[in-house]
Amino acid sequence: VQLVESGGGLVQPGGSLRLSCLASGFFFSDYVMGWARQEPGKGLEWVSGFYMNGSTYYADSTKGRFTISRDNAKNMMYLQMNSLKPEDTAVYYCHADRIDYTGRYEYWGQGTQVTVSS
User: Which residues are CB-neighbours of 64 under 8 A, at least 6 positions away?
Assistant: First the structure.
């Protein structure tokens, strides 16, 4: 099982980045997917994700600026980030989660650094 994030980098305030998450080793479409981030010395913050019914949610701090999407045929999830702010600087993680009668299955990627700075 593997989740691999890509697309992070250094961007100026107001700029955009598109993060990608490539999943392998599990049946992607069966999993609830999401993005979380962590700033140095702080706890994990949920950024955006999908509910079980396929609808999406966003943290208040990212609403209107970030857009999450997924392509089950390609085992990919994306996070389009626009109007980036310095406070968006963090390591962004891809997350996969599934609960069934056999238990809970939860996976994390290794993270990709996003730095918003002039």
Answer: none
- Smallest CA-to-CA distance from 16 within 77, 68, 91, 83 is with 83
Instruction: Count other C-beta atoms under 10 Å from residue 91's C-beta.
Output: 18
Taking CB atoms within 8 Å and a gap of at least 24, the contacts of 49-58 are: 49/95
**SS3 state at 9:** strand
Q: What is the pLDDT of residues 54-106, one digit of tens each?
A: 899 999 999 999 999 999 999 999 999 999 999 999 999 999 999 999 999 99
What DSSP assignment string belongs to 49-110? EE-TTS-EEE-TTTTTTEEEEEETTTTEEEEEE-S--GGG-EEEEEEEEEEETTEEEEEE--
Tokens standing for 43? 């706890």
CA dist., res. 113 & res. 118, Å (int): 16
In the beta sheet, which residues pair with residue 45?
37
Tell me the sheet residues that pair with 26.
none
